[in-house]
Amino acid sequence: MSSNNENSMIDVRIGIIGGSGLYNFDHLKTIKEIYHETPWGYPSSKITITEDPRGYKIAFLARHGKGHIYNPSEIPSRANIAALKNIGVEVIIAFSAVGSLREEIKPKDFILPDQIIDRTKGIRPSTFFENGLIAHVSFADPFDQVLSELIYKHKNVLEEGGYNLHQNKTLVCMEGPAFSTRAESNLYRSWGCDVVNMSAIPEAKLAKELEIAYQMVCMSTDYDCWRQNEESVTVEIVLSNMNKNSANAKKLLEAILPDLEQALNDGKFESNKGSMDYSFVTNKEAMNKEQVKKLEYVFPDILSKLGVSPDWF
Ligand SMILES: CSC[C@H]1O[C@H](OP(=O)(O)O)[C@H](O)[C@@H]1O
Ligand SMILES: Nc1ncnc2[nH]cnc12
Predict the structure, then answer these.
(1) Which residue range is the domain that position 252 belongs to?
(2) What is the pTM of this model?
(3) Based on the structure, what is the number of domains in the chain?
(4) Residues sharing a CB contact under 8 Å with residue 211, sequence separation 6 or more, in sequence order
(5) Within a domain: 181
(6) Which of 5, 134, 137, 164 would give a disulfide with 109, using CB separation of 3.0 to 4.6 Å?
(7) Residue 156 maps to a domain
(8) Domain containing residue 58: CATH number
(9) Ligand 1: which of 16, 63, 77, 96 to mutate, judged by most atoms within 8 Å of the beta carbon?
């Protein structure tokens, strides 16, 4: 397992998670590749630290692994988020292919959701706080509004190509891997959902637990199956739109990086830090010390968060 010290020289604060069809940022210069075991196992893929020609660094991780080997229920999300946090990531932009549940959200449009409805089935490990160290995260606003605004300012990147960037939409995250039935698709529409995917949960929750500013950038690939007399979603349809979406994702990221770096330097994401400080509920006497040790990997200051002194171990 790597230590924070070992990675402290990397100095990368921006994490990018690529989803279906977005498996690398290999147009940028690779500085380093990291593939370490975390207390929650190995991440989906190596983390590639890249630098763009202007000197901006990002840490890229492929959600489904190299060659797309994990289905949405199998993704080791705890290891993914823990590994990014361990190397110093403070902000995550997570790209995801989604189905559109609204006529006006066309294939190849991008969407910044501000809400999630969780339709996963409880089979994905979805918290760092268990086994004798319990905390309850505030999840009313699953995405980071500062990050969303910063990305939205660059909607012209998409508009220039004839596509839209929609903000403040509701995403429903289903278990999969089968796509929805027509009844489910219509149910999600009746609930006010705008887009559907299989990967926002538990990723968004875990980022929140680790005090990371997290925004999903959804890339529409299809109209799911709610439209009468229209072809319902298939992997072929999703992938046929992903080439264009990937190119646009790279352009969008390139446009936002200077603002993002500036926002980090200006402390715009600082309010996330310490957000878990009052979320722990386990009594000091009852805490599982092994679990506390595990959490040192992601919170080097876990003891002060818990209000215990170093000689407590
Ligand atoms: C390949 S279609 C279904 C698949 O696509 C999305 O993946 P990701 O969010 O990683 O881009 C969706 O969530 C499903 O996992
Ligand atoms: N229609 C859909 N349902 C769930 N996940 C998706 N990812 C891309 N399209 C999707």
Answers:
(1) 14-288
(2) 0.96
(3) 1
(4) 272, 273, 274, 275, 276
(5) yes
(6) 164
(7) yes
(8) 3.40.50.1580
(9) 96
